[in-house]
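3.2 Worked example (two chains)
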Amino acid sequence: GELVAEALDPINKRLAWSASDSEWQPVTIDADMTIRYGGRAYRLCSASERFRADVMIAEAISHLSKLKLLVIDAADILDLKGRGELLYWLETCAEMDELKTCIVLATLKAPVVSESDLIRSYWIERGTIAAPEQQAEAA
């Protein structure tokens, strides 16, 4: 139990940082490996809350392993506000050099427009990446 608690401490600290920076509810992992989001058991959370918990846990593992790589699928489960929070948090991680590469996949109605030099959006339609002028038209 002591070894597990010792190993979980850095993960829970990183999860607390991520929650604060992303403005999402905190994620914790108990000594018995129970995952909680906002104090509630993971299994009782909505799909969007579980997505947020999964992303923060993946980022904590990437951070602690020093991979600086994150792949996020199904980000379209988040509402517009949640997507903004996700991108802002990921941009903060990149600015702090804690994340080098992050691929975020989502099914959207239009390309994401970002003024940040750290974020690039690619519109894929029918299996082909649209040319930059087509992406601008779709936005």
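3.2.1 Second chain
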Amino acid sequence: MSNLVLIRHGQSLWNKERRFTGWADVDLTEQGKLEAKHAGEQIKALNIEFDVFFTSNLKRAINTLNLILEVLNKKNSKIIKTSALNERHYGGLTSLNKDETIKKYGEQQVKIWRRSFEVPPPPMDSQHPYKEKINSDISSESLRETFERVIPYYEKQIKPLIFLKKNILISFHGNSCRALLMKLFNISKKRIVDFEIPTGNPLQIEFGDDMKIKKYKYLDDKRAKKILFNV
């Protein structure tokens, strides 16, 4: 048996301000730090000895993992950081307030940009205030494009560890987590639109010896979101 624990980072400064974050490298709020520490306590109660820790290259996910490792008394553990687990690139929406964007473009259009599988947000142009900070040739990403970098990394770097019965903890982001859960739970492109990942709430997935999911649960059931199967 192997355990895979997934956690979306704790509340970030831009989560609190309801701004599109994407590849902007913003940090946790005080509440986000508390969420991470609480997550650490919940993970600690599982009494699982973790073998490998993964995170993205963005500090809100890195710092969430670091706070969890402090609670687990694993501060000196090796952490594997990769841009493959980064949040999706929100393009021209980056830094914009979500409520103001809904007023301008309509709730349905913003929902499509945020949640749909195929449709990317408007591209980030050369005049965007975060263009130089992000410094990428990629101008925006759909969930499909996020899926196409998360899943190959999972298949090559993480799935073989599950096969070897290793216990793994990943701290990453709402959309990179959505992409991975699409794969693991066979969530359809249609259903993924309605699927949201809570911040700072660990999702424990247990794999049997046959590599099939045996059971799963959010550790904080009061803040859990229902996993949407492909129906």
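3.3 Remarks
Helices lie at 13-16, 30-44, 59-71, 98-105, 107-115, 131-134, 143-163, 174-185.
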